[in-house]
What we know:
By secondary structure, this protein is mainly alpha-helical.
Amino acid sequence: MSAARTFHWKVFVSFYVVFSFVALAMSGIVLYVAPPGRIANWSVWRMVLLSKAQWQAVHTIVALLFLVAASFHLYFNWKVLVAYLKSKLHEGLRMKRELATATAAAVVLLTVTIAGIPPFSTVMDVGEGIKNSWSTAATEPPVPHAELLTIEKLAETVKIPTETVVANLEKRGVTMAQPGMTVRQIADQNRLTPQQVYQRIQSDDAKPKVSLAEGGGWGRMNVQQVCERYSVPVGTGVERLRAAGIDAESGTMLRELATAQRKTPIDIAKIIAGEDGTVASPGTHTPGTGKAGDGTVAGRGGSTAGRSGQ
Length: 310
């Protein structure tokens, strides 16, 4: 019998560095296009069988292990690396123009990236646009991270009696092991998504009504997207902004309007949806129809139709 082959740790580390780099690149691309957490957790968004939280875990753990493996890689190849750097450093010092140009280019790239100057800022803008494209009336929770609310708190938030919520769930075969369970726990128990649980609490006589909440990603939306989310005609939304002294078009980002007006993005969203911000839950809307739930947008002036001419 031949002697057992020696395990080559140097080769193992080299292979692992390569494989972890590929995993980091893949997870980085997925997270670049993944929806915001409030949407991903609500609809249990997945890509290549993994949820956003799982992709984040993969990216973080692999990155940490990559640093460990890279450290061992440097250790195993230290003499070769030092000799290489010495030769290149000596050569580089003789090429002062190239060294100065490379240094200046690195400083400029870092500066313009931090300052958010195109075309580098465009990379981030494209990512924001892709992330925001996942936001629809169907995928948005009634309030950010509503999956963490108990049924009682969710019922209070969407202004549906708790008894009606529980009855609707039972009628649709959704069980609760104990009172006080969160929407996520109920969803996991019944093999549903939090979004599907929320859909099952609704009925013809139980239409959710919610107020615009902080943390809804308003700054990443434009005027048209807010209008579609709350089924307000785009023309009506733009007119409401102009009536408030805010010049905007359908594609104008709320973040830009908020900065110019010294307001928060949610302030701008409330003007679009109705001054007091009380509207039918986005989960009951059909984007672009101009109709929400019972056909009204609850606010200080009553129905949308009644205020559209203002």
